[in-house]
Amino acid sequence: MEETREISALLHLIDDPDAEVYTTVSDRIVTYGKPIIPNLENLWENTPNEEIQERIELLIHRLHFQDLQADFTTYAKKDYQDLLEGALLVSQYQFPDLMTSTVTQEMEKIRRNIWLELNSYLTALEQVNVVNRILFAYYKFKGVEVSYQYPEEFLLNKVLETHRGNSITNGIMYQLLCQMLDIPVQMINIPRQYILAYFDTSHEYFSGEKSNPNKIHFYIDPMNGQIYTQKDVENYFSRISVPPTPSYFKPLSHKRMLQHLLEEFSKCFDDEKNRYKQNELITLSDIISE
Question: 188 pairs with which residues across the strands?
């Protein structure tokens, strides 16, 4: 952005020790939107003071977050919320300059490798075994326990890059690939677990009617592809002393999956220095709440 007299004055005042002045200045800078970011980056490069650099970094973050909020609002208002688009919006919180086309191309590459092994004569279990073989044996994707010390494990772009993700991001990736291959696998809302279910599409399952566990062929652990039967799941409910009500066997909407992701991701920033990030992620979750 061309550096006008006002912009020059505002940038000069970023280092003002008076908190009230700084707040006024930063609020005004944010009104310029993302076009002012190159000016801030240039100032950062020419500022030796680490404290001032941190102020500049926070301003750049505010500008990116302002845009991201608008993107989430637009996304939430759409008639259909595309899961891949939503997952990439979450990634853009940490990586605002993310090239989404790179992620899309990688997903397509994996999809094609799975598709080459599929045919119309395979049973439901055989289809899933193909998906598992490509993901966990060929690509060597690894599932790890949810850990709030590793924020990148909550981001789809990093999972595709490192082949390492937790049950939420692995589950989203697995469901996306199945969606691209017309395999009826979706995440369900079993307590304390992120698990996928292979639905019997001969039933009108997606009509909005109440769920019935009998319409599910089997369950899949997104961490490693392990298959669970209905009996396994019933035993799990018995073990945790929770009645298996029909709502637990209903597919999670894309919005709800992304809410889960944002809420869990926010827990990575549960410390005084990063509390603002936790609050921002909860704000994004609220934007897409159902």
Answer: 195, 251
